[in-house]
Amino acid sequence: MTYNMFIDDERVPHDVTWAAQVDQEIYNNGQWIVVRDYDEVVECIMNLGLPSLVSFDHDLGENTPTGYDIAKMMCDLILDGVVLLPEDFRFRVHSKNPVGKKNIEEYMRAFVNYALSEK
After folding, report:
1. What band does 25 get if pLDDT is binned at 50, 70 and 90?
2. How many CB atoms lie within 10 A of CB 4?
Protein backbone atom coordinates (compact mmCIF):
# COMPACT_ATOMS: atom_id res chain seq x y z
CA MET A 1 0.00 0.00 0.00
CA THR A 2 1.31 3.44 -0.90
CA TYR A 3 0.65 6.17 1.63
CA ASN A 4 2.13 9.31 3.18
CA MET A 5 2.91 9.53 6.91
CA PHE A 6 3.06 12.85 8.76
CA ILE A 7 4.72 12.54 12.19
CA ASP A 8 3.93 15.43 14.54
CA ASP A 9 2.49 15.67 18.04
CA GLU A 10 0.57 18.90 17.38
CA ARG A 11 0.42 19.95 13.74
CA VAL A 12 -1.24 18.65 10.59
CA PRO A 13 0.30 18.84 7.10
CA HIS A 14 -1.32 22.10 5.99
CA ASP A 15 0.19 23.81 9.09
CA VAL A 16 3.67 23.48 7.53
CA THR A 17 3.73 26.92 5.96
CA TRP A 18 7.51 27.39 6.34
CA ALA A 19 8.45 24.59 3.93
CA ALA A 20 9.94 25.34 0.53
CA GLN A 21 7.40 26.24 -2.14
CA VAL A 22 7.87 22.90 -3.90
CA ASP A 23 6.94 21.10 -0.67
CA GLN A 24 3.93 23.31 0.01
CA GLU A 25 2.02 21.49 -2.70
CA ILE A 26 2.85 18.16 -1.11
CA TYR A 27 1.73 19.30 2.34
CA ASN A 28 -1.44 20.96 1.08
CA ASN A 29 -2.58 18.47 -1.53
CA GLY A 30 -1.24 15.11 -0.40
CA GLN A 31 -3.25 12.44 1.35
CA TRP A 32 -1.64 11.94 4.76
CA ILE A 33 -1.95 9.59 7.69
CA VAL A 34 -1.13 11.73 10.72
CA VAL A 35 0.61 9.97 13.60
CA ARG A 36 1.43 11.67 16.89
CA ASP A 37 4.06 9.53 18.58
CA TYR A 38 6.44 6.57 18.38
CA ASP A 39 3.79 3.98 19.26
CA GLU A 40 1.38 5.23 16.59
CA VAL A 41 4.18 5.09 14.01
CA VAL A 42 4.99 1.48 14.93
CA GLU A 43 1.32 0.50 14.78
CA CYS A 44 0.86 2.16 11.39
CA ILE A 45 3.99 0.55 9.90
CA MET A 46 3.08 -2.90 11.23
CA ASN A 47 -0.38 -2.61 9.66
CA LEU A 48 0.48 -0.86 6.38
CA GLY A 49 4.24 -1.24 5.84
CA LEU A 50 6.54 1.72 5.35
CA PRO A 51 5.08 4.81 3.72
CA SER A 52 6.36 6.00 0.37
CA LEU A 53 6.64 9.52 1.84
CA VAL A 54 7.27 10.39 5.47
CA SER A 55 7.52 13.85 6.99
CA PHE A 56 9.24 14.07 10.36
CA ASP A 57 8.90 16.43 13.27
CA HIS A 58 11.73 16.10 15.78
CA ASP A 59 10.24 17.14 19.12
CA LEU A 60 7.22 14.99 19.96
CA GLY A 61 6.61 16.03 23.57
CA GLU A 62 8.54 15.87 26.80
CA ASN A 63 10.09 12.58 27.85
CA THR A 64 9.02 10.84 24.64
CA PRO A 65 11.01 9.39 21.76
CA THR A 66 11.87 11.97 19.10
CA GLY A 67 11.52 11.97 15.35
CA TYR A 68 15.20 10.99 15.26
CA ASP A 69 14.39 7.91 17.35
CA ILE A 70 11.60 7.08 14.91
CA ALA A 71 13.94 7.47 11.93
CA LYS A 72 16.40 5.03 13.51
CA MET A 73 13.60 2.58 14.31
CA MET A 74 12.34 2.67 10.70
CA CYS A 75 15.83 1.95 9.39
CA ASP A 76 16.29 -0.89 11.90
CA LEU A 77 13.02 -2.46 10.73
CA ILE A 78 14.35 -2.43 7.17
CA LEU A 79 17.76 -3.82 8.16
CA ASP A 80 16.09 -6.57 10.21
CA GLY A 81 13.91 -7.54 7.24
CA VAL A 82 10.65 -6.72 9.04
CA VAL A 83 9.56 -4.26 6.34
CA LEU A 84 10.78 -3.30 2.89
CA LEU A 85 11.95 0.12 1.77
CA PRO A 86 9.47 1.24 -0.88
CA GLU A 87 11.00 1.76 -4.32
CA ASP A 88 9.66 5.32 -4.42
CA PHE A 89 10.58 6.18 -0.80
CA ARG A 90 11.02 9.88 0.01
CA PHE A 91 11.22 11.84 3.23
CA ARG A 92 10.96 15.41 4.43
CA VAL A 93 11.73 16.95 7.81
CA HIS A 94 9.35 19.73 8.75
CA SER A 95 10.70 20.20 12.29
CA LYS A 96 11.50 23.74 13.40
CA ASN A 97 14.27 22.36 15.64
CA PRO A 98 17.36 23.05 13.48
CA VAL A 99 19.66 20.54 15.18
CA GLY A 100 16.99 17.82 15.28
CA LYS A 101 16.10 18.50 11.64
CA LYS A 102 19.72 18.21 10.55
CA ASN A 103 20.22 14.98 12.51
CA ILE A 104 17.18 13.32 10.95
CA GLU A 105 18.08 14.51 7.44
CA GLU A 106 21.67 13.28 7.69
CA TYR A 107 20.70 9.93 9.19
CA MET A 108 17.94 9.25 6.67
CA ARG A 109 20.00 10.44 3.70
CA ALA A 110 22.89 8.16 4.68
CA PHE A 111 20.57 5.21 5.24
CA VAL A 112 18.66 5.63 1.99
CA ASN A 113 21.94 5.92 0.06
CA TYR A 114 23.19 2.74 1.76
CA ALA A 115 19.95 0.85 1.14
CA LEU A 116 19.90 1.83 -2.54
CA SER A 117 23.52 0.76 -2.99
CA GLU A 118 22.68 -2.68 -1.57
CA LYS A 119 19.96 -3.37 -4.18
Report:
1. confident
2. 19
Residue 119 pLDDT > 70: no
DSSP 8-state secondary structure symbol assigned to residue 61: S
Q: What are 90's strand-pairing partners?
A: 53
List C-alpha distances in Å: 24 to 18, 21, 56, 95, 119.
8, 5, 15, 14, 31
Identify residue 39 by its one-letter amino acid code: D
Whole-angstrom distance, CA of residue 81 vs CA of residue 112: 15
Distance CA 16, CA 22 (A): 12
The pTM of the full predicted model, rounded to 2 decimals, is 0.94
Radius of gyration of the chain (CA): 13
Report the alpha-carbon distance of residue 66 to residue 68 in Å, rounded.
5
